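Example record

The entry below shows one chain as it appears in the dataset: sequence first, then structure tokens.
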Amino acid sequence: MRPLRQRRQARQHRIGRVMATFAVDEVPWSWVARTRPGGRIVTPWGRLGHVALTVAEDGLSATGWMQGLAQFMPARGAGRGRVSYQQVRAAAAGPVDMRPAVRQLEPLRDDIHLRFALRVALPDVHITTAEDGDGLNAWLHDGSSWAALSAVAHQGGPRRLADELDAAWDRWLGDGSPALYDYGMTVEPHRQYVWCADPVTGPRWPLPV
């Protein structure tokens, strides 16, 4: 353990604010450690949204609310090695499930609050939408599993992403369709999670770190 004088000097050299101009999938703990208690960390997070965190008085966590939409250049290396839906579908082994789609896809394209909720619930799943001659379509993949949605849902790979999407969508509706502004984040040394409505009593979703 460092002597008391060194610890005091380290605290004195902490900064009051960190503002990132690139998106991160996880907030580096070093940002929290360098920010003094009561200081602010503002950063774009993930593929949607940006968050403003306040460092706790004991310096052992940072918590704050989502502030709105933001799409920034990702941190260097964040997208390295990412594969496309077409590559995942071509490589996926095993049977393909097919069933009728259970809901219209327009909210998946148009509702930013739904899209944010799905980003929280399924952080490793990439979702894209587009229209063609058959109407609106959606494609999902996590690097090894895939799903394609139109009037019919097809899915293959180790996970059943269409089923997971429906479950996350149902949970969002069951929670009252919260807006992205109802979500927040807590960052601790060895874990971080997104919560809804209340950082202590609200539902939470752990993030990979």
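Notes for this example: The helical segments are 4-12, 29-34, 85-91, 106-110, 112-121, 161-174. The first helix runs from residue 4 to 12.
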